[in-house]
Specification:
Helix content of chain A: 25-40%
Number of strands of chain A: 14
CATH architecture of the largest domain in chain A: 3-Layer(aba) Sandwich
Radius of gyration of chain A: 21 Å
Distance between the termini of chain A: 31 Å
CATH class of the largest domain in chain A: Alpha Beta
Oligomer: homodimer
Shape of chain A: globular
Structural class of chain A: alpha/beta
Largest interface: A-B, 71 and 71 residues
Strand order of the largest sheet of chain A: 2-10-9-8-5-3-4
Chain lengths: 360, 360
């Protein structure tokens, strides 16, 4: 068969144009006579690739000069340790627990100090975002931590928490570059590339410069110290070069789409098609409190395990793949990242509607 | 122009067949309807990719069941910290300093305990391997550490050190899979993929099982604890999936070439072409003590900075690229990894000979 509509939560769909370009350049990158995979990371063509990627990312988000952009490895899971190792000078930090990934980050934080869970939505299977307007922020907290979009549960912080002046650290893996964002509200924003940005194996950190220092926790590995890579423009050692190259192509593609304003509008339209259908469906039901719904990850259920399974199987036959929900929520989940075309969402809703009628 | 002969020290040349296959599969991996970059790491096709890669690697080296194979991130530089964090129970380790990378590993080891430099060849710009038959191995050493092939200096341990019963840990980044190896002589063998195995962003650890425990140093990040990934078959979090896929293709290619016996023989032949020429040349001179020469990285000089620069520039024009030596040795360096065809080495020697005659 041809290309399917891939609703995977991550690694996830990438723009077809990006993949086609990468394929065409695989044996010979623009007349250099070799693949990007074979290039020294100190070579001129690669320097241009990584510098252009950073410049385009800065332009897309509007990153001011007092923020550093780092291309790192190890995924968000490794930043769960890097964040406290680089920031926990008072050995206190506040975590808002809105899902499994926030919880993992919190547990990792506890290795290094007093990581406090100051709010949680675990009581209702993380199906909402807690009220964060007046939380008991710790007076000596080094930072307040959130996972901004919760891939598994389909929630998103549409309003950032009131951190009462403390630095905000956000894992944005599953909503990176999905809409315009005011980076100055964040001290650290980071995310794994493999959902909205590129292949697995790249994590991008955007860090306010004053937080990048030698004053890290004792025992911090050189590679986890942000200053190591900041001083070397992400080239302290060999970076995940091919992944960065693909990310760079995605940044260009996002610019071609009109930038984050346009992308955000398109993502709202795409999500509305699915949520509007869910809200009137007699068979399918969204699992998330309406005001906290993610534009990227949309979980839904029928209420029957057999029907859920039948739906996932039949959808796959129809070229709509990876719709099985995460085991902790059950049912289905459609991840509709930047690269998922509107036509894919329309086809999904059409298929859901047909399934609903067949099972009425 | 077409493909060049790429003598880069890493990232480095990959087999053209591997790249061509990857290009052909970029938009649709074997009828799955998506790229490997877009695949969930929990999906069946990816499970098959990583399991086949591991099985082929085990077959190539002959890895017994009591060794685990891990596909990790962060390069060798991150393992410089992971090694002591996972192994330094007595807080003592012995390092043999044969180049910049061994030295970096040693310095990183000192963050975690008493890392002792028990031998060094720094006195002669690391141009030889010290006699390691009777070293002052520390009685309470948790391990003895070497960098087996020194990319920058072009030396290799042709005999492993006598560790007097202590566990041997070896960084084999630049000689990985270049010849047959008895893995049972090592406690830990690891290497970055970007020289002989695949793209940057993957590091492969082969670890004797009894060394993979929860008994790690306090403060070890979950992602640096080997047991985390060992328990999860390298899928604790999203792995560098596309890189692993390319590594897997290279393993298949190595098997097609006849395995490590055949590859080792070919690498000896290739290196001999270059070393034999150097040994009779009146212009070019190898920089390494003969008995310690690497099969992979061959540094050489003319003795004149201007001639060196002219050589590098003219070679590039002739399609022989990335021959500039590392600044700490100067001159030239030809990295002739597995994927460098014999024809590439022959062309290099032919070019050197022509250059020598022109400058006689």
């Amino acid at each position: 068969m041809g290309r399917v509509y891939n609703f995977s939560a991550g690694p996830a769909v990438l723009p077809e144009e990006v993949l086609a370009e990468a394929a065409a350049e695989m044996l010979d990158y623009r007349g250099v006579g070799m693949s990007v995979m074979e290039m020294s990371h100190r070579s001129k063509p690669f320097a241009e690739i990584i510098e252009t990627a950073e410049a385009d990312l800065r332009e897309l988000i509007g990153i001011p000069d007092n923020y550093k952009v780092l291309f790192l490895q190890g995924g968000a899971s490794q930043q769960f340790a890097a964040v406290p190792m680089n920031l926990m000078r008072n050995r206190v930090a506040d975590y808002i627990i809105t899902g499994s990934w926030a919880k993992k980050a919190w547990k990792e934080g506890k290795i290094y100090g007093d990581a406090r869970a100051i709010a949680s939505s675990e009581d209702e299977t993380f199906s909402y975002i807690p009220d964060c307007s007046d939380l008991p922020i710790s007076e000596d907290a080094d930072y307040v931590y959130i996972c901004e979009n919760n891939t598994i549960y389909g929630t998103k912080f549409h309003t950032l928490p009131n951190t009462k002046g403390k630095d905000l650290v956000a894992d944005v893996s599953s909503c990176f570059l999905s809409e315009p964002v005011d980076i100055t509200k964040y001290a650290v924003m980071y995310g794994g590339a493999q959902k909205n940005i590129g292949p697995a194996g790249v994590v991008i950190d955007i860090i306010r410069e004053d937080l990048i220092t030698d004053d890290v926790l004792e025992g911090t590995p050189t590679m986890l110290k942000w200053k190591t890579q900041a001083d070397a423009d992400s080239l302290y050692n060999t970076p995940p070069a091919y992944g960065i190259y693909i990310c760079g192509k995605v940044f260009k593609w996002l610019k071609d789409q009109g930038g984050l304003e346009a992308i955000g509008k398109r993502n709202e339209e795409k999500a509305a098609i699915l949520y509007d259908y869910l809200d009137q469906s007699k068979l399918f039901k969204g699992t998330v409190r309406k005001e906290d719904r993610s534009l990227m990850n949309v979980p839904f259920v029928t209420g029957s395990d057999e029907l859920d399974a039948a739906f996932v199987a039949e959808a796959k036959e129809a070229g709509l793949v990876n719709l099985k929900g995460h085991r902790s929520v059950g049912g289905m989940r459609a991840s509709i990242y930047n690269a998922m075309p509107k036509a894919g969402v329309e086809k999904l809703v059409e298929f859901m509607d047909g399934f609903e009628k067949a099972h009425a």
